[in-house]
Specification:
This protein has about 550 residues and is mainly alpha-helical. The protein has two domains: about 350 residues, no CATH class; about 160 residues, no CATH class. About 60% of the residues lie in helices and about 5% in strands. The chain is built from 25 helices and seven strands. The strands form two sheets. Strands 2-1-3-7-4 form a five-stranded mixed sheet. It has a two-stranded antiparallel ribbon with strand order 5-6. A hairpin with a 2-residue loop joins strand 5 and strand 6. Helix 15 packs across helix 17. The longest helix has 29 residues.
Length: about 550
Amino acid sequence: MTAAIPAPAEGRMAFWLILAAILAGAALRFVGLAWDQGQMLHPDESNLVRGATYLNLQWNGDPQFYAYGGLSLFAPRLVTAFWSIFDPTLDVLAPHMLAAAARWISAWCSLGVVAFGALIMRRAGGGPMLAAAVAWLLALDVGLIQAAHFGTTDAPLVFVLAILVWLAIGFTAGRLRTPIWVLLSGVALGAGLALKVSAVPMALVPAVAALMQARRLGLRTFLLAALGGGIVTAAVFALLNPYIFAHWDAFTSIMDFESGVVSGRNDVFWTLQFIGQPPFFLVAQMPWMSGPLLPGLGIAGLVALLIAAYRGNATARALLPLGVFALVWLAYVSSLHAAFIRYLLPLSLPLAIGAVWLVAELAGRWRSAAIGILIVTSALWAIAFTAIYRTEDSRIQASRWLIAEAKPTDVLVFEPNDSPMPTGVLNAPDFTKGLLELRREGDDPEITRAFAEQLEAGDWIVMPSRRNWMVLPRLRQRFPAACAYYAALFAGELGYAEVKRFENMPRLFGITIPTTDAEETFEVFDHPAVRIFRKTRRLDRDALTAAMDRYRWACTRPET
């Protein structure tokens, strides 16, 4: 597809459409940015803030957290320093301020992807109206919107990808001289690695661009460009991560641990949900991130784009580095054990471009209508999803209710590795709290006995999310005691009854859209369903143990 030179009227209309997309994207990203009232209910965000506090702009410090890179830890602190210029009383190291700064960065980076998406499509020769369509799809992309509300590295990494693609198109089109392109791409890639080392596959973008120009460059210049790009990338990475050289063993140990988690070599509670999941589980999650139509059209468009590039289509060739990265990335993340939905986020840009390119190629005179339908469906899903940020977080709602209903002397029984409740935004009584060690493995009667002791002492059971009750019973051979506990609890045999459930699911036109089929982290970080059970009759530990033992046979029988 080679677009004709646009008429001035078309160019002006496209400009206003792109501007409208950016404004709509800003509203969807910045509204509700303080959705948890500064509680840092996203665990990765709280880890990032803790690391930023330890570093405090000291290049030789120890963040005691290495899963994210130095740029991700220094940047929020730089933002709070900037804010303090206008408010000298600001506590620049207050965790809630650093979290707000990290989210501010994520929101701006997510919005930057919208603008760069339009620039990429325009620079590739797609024409102004197709650039506007890409901008709208990215503005409405739920994955990018959700990432904007988390102070993590996800949105900034997609922004780095967009910059690399934009630079690659400029280089292959002859608009950037080789030394300038090598320098800028090296800086961008080095910054990406300084956000998180998982940015390594983004090196595919400049690598494909260089290979496309290998004949023009010649062997000597090609090798010098590759060497120079590697040196610049390494230098930027080292500059922004100086502390890792002083703490090399800790850094490499964490990198090994994280790679083990992703591959399934290391068994941790946050990947239990992936055990036994069907093949291509992550691919099936794509509509949650990008809407009902975009994933299929986007993937088909990327494949068609590669074919068209092989046949010499100018626009497709310009987009080839992005297309190669996207398909390689999709194949890679689809093979991982830890199929976290956020791993799909780098595909938001290529999916939008691939879908628009495919529709423009195939729809003919119905092109505008087809793109319009695609945008409308994305808009409906984006409006439905962002309802969660226009309502008080379900954990804060539940905390408020629990404080009003429970007596200060009551005992609250909680599940492991979940959000603390009542949350810190409320002046809660100092409740006595018990913990059910649900993740104890094996068919040991003592585990059930320990559960019974906690349940006997408790007055309430609080489930802040689905992290345990939707996962552990499914793994009954490994966690038979937890399986039996949930079976007895939900059957009403433990003397507790569910009295309240707080949900803040996506909704549109009065219709609620449950996200329980989505990958766990899509829901539990920002809109978990909180379930509260109240003791309605008192049972001693022997009766409680016997009630759970009645379900033991079902939880220990061999798989068929």
